[in-house]
Sequence to fold (176 residues):
Amino acid sequence: MATTSLPLTIQQIITDHQGTGYSNRVVMGSTQLAAGQTLRNVYWAVIVDRTNLNVVENFTFSDNNDVPAQFNKYTGNPQYMLILSSQILLTANIPAGAFYTYLVDMGAGPALQSIEQFYQTLGCGNWVYLGYVFVSVFDSNAAIEFSEYKSDTVYTMQLLAIPNPAGGVLYTPAKL
Fold:
């Protein structure tokens, strides 16, 4: 049986367009979601049921130290995946503390380390905004992640329909 896939595309806004209508977007197959256009210096979390691609949580937060309480009921449950992106994130608001540790435990690596090094060596005065994207299954320690410093960007991935032992499929994020 051939594995089928659906496109997963994430548009990330890094530069401040002063309310001109740009925002982060997530597109899974034909489902399109957008973060609020006026939101700055936030993380946008979309939690998706992997069995049917239903969005079960869709929220923004600005606390870069604590793990959002909404994550608690999904942590360790392979039925769900997290799509996380920053929108117009100030350099000084990169993941830290328990939030940083949580992302590392779920598979964050080189992209998160890159923005951490960027902040530690250059500080927040040289570059004001940066971007971070993280996609992972909640029981996994493998993630797809990206970081960007210069301009708005689009990341393309896929959701592979992997047979679920319980029946049906589990859509699993994968690089193209």
Notes: The first strand starts at residue 4 and ends at 12. The mean pLDDT is 91.
